[in-house]
Amino acid sequence: MNRERRQLIGSRADAGSRSAAELSPVTSLWSGTGAAVICTTVLASAVAALGASVIRVAVPAIGRDLTASVAALQWTVTSYLLTTAALLLLVGALADRFGRKRMLLVGLLVTLAGSILCAIAPTIEALIAARLLQGVGGALVTPTSLALLNATLRVEDRARAIGLWVGIETLLTSIGPYVGGWLVDQVSWRAIFLLNVPLIAICLVTLVWMPESRDGRPSFSLDLGGASLAVLGLGGVIWALTSGPVSGWSTTPVLVAGVVGILALAGLFPLERRLQDPMLRLSLFASRQFTAINLTTVLLYGALGAAGYLVTLQLQLRLGYSAAQAGAALIPTTVMLLVMAPISGALVARTGPRWPMVAGIVALALAFVWISAAQPGASYVESILPPAVLWGLGIGIAVTPLTAAVLAAVDDADLGEGSAINDAAARVGSVVVIALLPLLIGAGAAGNLGDALQHGYQPAMLAMGALTALSAVIAGLFVSNQRATAPAVTPASEPATT
């Protein structure tokens, strides 16, 4: 990989453009700049993750306060994921060309504005609109933070840095639901949207010590057509999946939204193939490693996001937990993740990502099956704590090799796009499966979430276990321990062709 990277850098220097190495000096994890990198990227990622996760403990309170329907409550969760997933690919390309530090700064400011608007939203419609804006900020923050980490640190430090990044970020984002639940119980659900304000403030300060990072490509074309089709396609499909169980699948709005969404997504790929500088460079998928990892990510994070939401609802609406208790119930998951993530990072550096990833995903599938038995009257120590520990063990083992593998499958100049595609895969998986939850638990027009969970919680959780197991099979069959070589992807200095 070093030989190909030197050749690529040399060709760019001959063309008179600055290379990625020149714009992003490679530094040690243990240097002052390395510390700033870890601090900034961890805090930024935590901000984006809080936007996606902390609202789950507030869903029942939001429903009561704003008199929201099942479909509207679903949109408070999925709207953030929708805009994040739809815009990640465009943002990854923008970050590679205009600077990852610059995109991160803009994303933090947009997230701050969206969070404040969420906190003061007078109606459920206003809240959903503010969540859409918050998701735009999340799209700007998510791929740029991890790409900045990988572009700035030495290759030999990256696996360990990713382990630290996963552990610290997850600590912050897992404590978030507990703190958010306490705020819901003691203050208001509106206060949860201000949780990330101090994190953003600290991140803006540490960002000063971060070097800029970009790939230095001289050509650039803003792919507004691709971005529009992605937003329209995902939006139409998610709207249909969210509204179908409540309004009826044969109603005109649901049918129109679904058809328009499918057609938009179907038109996205031919459009991207024709463009000289597309938002989604399909040549990256010539790498089997890259394709397999992203398919694994869609299934794994789809099940993971939906399972976390389901368990939180079950704890509050069926088991009688307060919002704070529901947020605290999975803290053992965080403890195990913090123990395992650094170990997993060191293990990946020695053995490669394949089998640690498979082992972690299998453990996670077993945890979902186990916790599916949690019903009213069940003891926390017997029914929640053991699977919560296994849940954390699985994530702690799996996430670091998954992240390291997808970034190893692309050239350093394509870190932004590679990271964005993988993050988009995670968000698409999560938003699609969460949108399907009303259907999976049987929450129709005449019912509500609490009633639907009575008979639908366990089958839905078993489905999440099966989905996770399928992702483990794909990873075991198709993911390798080898870093991608230059021929596996189109060189960053050349346009993708078909």
List the helices and strands and how they pair.
Layout: H1 2-14, H2 20-23, H3 32-53, H4 59-66, H5 70-98, H6 100-119, H7 124-152, H8 155-186, H9 197-206, H10 224-247, H11 252-274, H12 288-317, H13 323-329, H14 331-351, H15 354-371, H16 380-408, H17 415-441, H18 449-478
Helix pairs in contact: 3-6, 3-7, 3-8, 3-9, 5-6, 5-7, 5-10, 5-17, 6-7, 6-9, 7-17, 8-13, 8-14, 8-16, 10-11, 10-17, 12-13, 12-16, 12-17, 12-18, 14-16, 15-16, 15-18, 17-18
- Which structural class fits the helix and strand makeup? mainly alpha
Taken from the alpha-carbon principal axes, the silhouette is globular
Class of the largest domain in CATH? Mainly Alpha
* Helix-strand sequence: HHHHHHHHHHHHHHHHHH
| CATH T-level topology of the largest domain | Growth Hormone, Chain: A
Number of strands: 0
Quaternary structure state of the chains depicted: single chain
At CATH's second level, what is the architecture of the largest domain? Up-down Bundle
How much beta, percentage-wise?
A: under 5%
Poorly predicted sequence stretches spanning 5 or more consecutive residues: 1-24, 484-498
The total count of helices amounts to 18
The total domain count is 2
Helix share, percent: over 70%
| CATH superfamily (homologous) name of the largest domain | MFS general substrate transporter like domains
